[in-house]
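#struct-pred

JT: dropping the chains for the assembly here, can someone run the whole complex?
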Amino acid sequence: MQDYKLLRVNLSEGSIKEETIPSQLINNYIGGKGLAAYYLYTEVKAKVDPLSPANKVIFMAGPLAGIMPCCTHHVVTTKSPLTGGYADSFAAGNFSYELRKAGFLGIIIEGKSPNLVTLKIEGRKATLEDASHLKGKTITETDKYYSGFNVASIGPGGENLVKYACILNNVTGAGRSAAAGRGGAGAVMGSKNLKAIAVKSDGKLEIPEKVKDLQKKHFKRFADDKDLREFFSGGLFTPNIDICNTANVIPTRNFTEGSFEKVKSINEDALRPNIIKKSACYLCPVGCGNTVKVNRGPFKGTEATVEYEPTVLLGANCGQGDLSTIVESIRLCNEYGVDVMSMGDVIAFAMECSEKGLIDYEIHFGDAEKQIELIKMIVNREGIGNLLAEGVKVASEKIAKGSEDFAIHVKGLELPAYDPRGSRAMALAYATADRGGCHQRAWPAGAEVVDKTADPFTTTGKAELVKELQDYNAAAWSLITCDCVPYSAEWLAEILSSLGFSINEKEFMTLGEKVYNVARLFNVREGFSRKDDSMPKRFTEPMKDTGWKIPMNDFERMLDEYYEFRGWDKKTGIPKAEKLRELGIGELAP
Amino acid sequence: MGIKVNISRQLQQFTNGQMVVEAVGRNIGECVESLEAQFPGIKKGLHVEQGELNGPYQIYVKSTNSYTAKLDKPVQENDELAIRFTVAGG
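RK: done, full complex below.
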């Protein structure tokens, strides 16, 4: 197996070192999520302030980046300023391919720079360059400044330490642009005075002949797959807008209802005529990037790449049926570098607070101008925006007066756009996701709502389903494969073996379980336990339109079963020592 | 006695809109052949090529899945299958 290298950048010292990743570590964790989780757990001490120099930001690619189709995501892993726990976020785009060509699998950022800087990697040479003149610049402005480079940068959101600030890459270059959106890694980067990482390399990846054959086989498999291409032809997961609306699980007006009366104004049929550009990552024949330009409404002319989650959370969940307002909201979040999903939930929360007279700021569901104004106030931390920049958990704790009951988050991370009252397994998936309320560790709504191949109202079999999805994804994201395309376990084991890794398909699934437990250990060390594997109180109450609710007994029973499958203590949620030993990570027990 | 098969929404075009159908077989592959005999075209819709699942579908037995492209996993009379479109996000 070849050597894999990473860059260790200490911003306090201004030092940059190249390291070879020990081969045993590579074989145990492969790359991506696995390797980054290991480094975070072993290198960041317990209880450090996420916005202090003691925290680290880890960018990690996978060994398949630039080699296999649909494998160019990278992960950004850190201790979250939003949750205080483990956070990783995956971004599409070609940043990881460029990084791999430059000779690196990952970058570990430590310390804090005295002034705003950019890490510039040109060929094999890495330097820290003053970026003071880029202070306050948007993502597009920064990206353009480093024209010719593949740039991952923060905007004013990250600089102003908005707790759900994100990192976007490749917004002006060819191909797909995307965000490492969730958990506030952009704020951690901002706290370190790191504006951007810009990478350019003329290097070539050495691809063994056998691997080239596998590359061709899987490229053809995806290219020939009309179902996949059709599913993503109108936007990333946008067919789910109608599907979820019909199933009454589309979050509407801060998760009070599950269907939106103006859905026809924001669904895929409404979006499709506005598509002006399609984009794909390197070596991807599917192409899920769809940019729309909306030519009517109060913000006519606005453009953004659309996906299911932001369209729903900044749309239906804010009672917003005007497409131009939704697209303008997405555009602003992307320019300022803040997470579109958290922003949607934060605004919806503020709207409900306002309508109940709990805050001194007037904004109503469906108010287009105020929605745009509030995004700007949050990014600039003006007025009520300063509190809302902390996320709904902290904001609700400060506002109090019962607002905690409708602050929609798990562990501090605002929830995605599936109401679990019509998809019970999603409640468990959110509760047990390693980074807080997340749908990408496990997405059982795919079975319960989109496919309709599982009963959405029963808890039977759901614990096992959620665990399996989490383990598969944790393994796949260690390689890193895209979550839009399917690779079977034996194909991935075959590909890894041909690159010199020692792994079979059974070990592949164990890899996922191991990685998921490392992330869990990080959270346990920070003080998280069963009490935090919870759901917002709102989900125990009836939805206004359907009357559905989740009885706590059902939820607790699922959680008990889940812990049993996991080998975690039922009382505390802490992985048992024998489970850790079985996974070969006994030495990591806190 | 047949084995209950839950059909992915996208594949219900082959089953005349039926969400749940029955198949017979000792393993997943034989169940797929049984489905094809009842609902011609579903095998192609499932992207079964050279004995492997090549497309975006996975077949779950009870609630579990081995994330395998192979079709040789054994099934028993009381098992329930689910054919699912398995992209992982949303």
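JT: nice. Chain B has one domain: 3-85. Chain B touches chain A at residues 6-10, 19, 45, 47, 53-58, 60, 62-70, 82-90 (CB under 8 Å).
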